[in-house]
């Protein structure tokens, strides 16, 4: 199956999904890539796994004949942090030295920098990752592989162009932000404040 899960280099047809960004942004990128590529790869790490799945489902409902292959794996991640216990201990010793000896010299400052480097702790952890391969060409697809999903029925697909996706995105931002949408809340408040009942209450509060 094309698209290795072990490569860290980003491919031309690969989209790395973040859990903070809007899903329609990635859907737009995927639809644009399908105009020049037969295959699009969606990848994510950690919290972005659910976002990758959502983007894949949205793309499949906006383009016909897309085969899906999902791969889940783990990746080692190295984290470097400063030991807080050693840092507190060294800070106390520095304060005592300043109180007794005064300000440190240049040579002493270099020694402090070396000590801070020695206080750094390095440990490894595993992070869950996902890679979803969406392709229109089923020649290189193993349909018996675990994680394979056949294309959706045509009745469940609403084919959209990139321009239509941008319009959908602008529509959602304009009318679907907040509970009930801004258009309903703003019109409700405007009509409520313009009623004579509100004006009477406001007048009563002033007096």
CATH superfamily of the domain at 9-82 and 130-171: Alba-like domain
**Order of neighbouring strands in the sheet with most strands:** 1-2-4-3-5
CATH topology of the domain at 9-82 and 130-171: Translation Initiation Factor IF3
Share of residues in strands: 15-25%
Termini separation = 77 Å
User: Could you spell the SSE succession in H and E letters?
Assistant: EHEHEHHEEHHH
The Rg value, from CA coordinates, equals: 28 Å
Using the coordinates above, name the CATH class of the domain at 9-82 and 130-171.
Answer: Alpha Beta
Low-confidence stretches: 1-7, 180-185, 187-195, 197-207
Biggest β-sheet: count, sense, barrel?
5 strands, mixed
CATH architecture of the domain at 9-82 and 130-171: 2-Layer Sandwich
Work out the helicity level: 40-55%
Overall number of strands: 5
Query: Which outline best applies?
Result: globular
The whole-number mean of residue pLDDT values reads 76
Biased composition (Basic and acidic residues): 80-101
Domain DNA/RNA-binding protein Alba-like: 13-74
Family: Belongs to the histone-like Alba family.
Protein name: DNA/RNA-binding protein Alba-like domain-containing protein
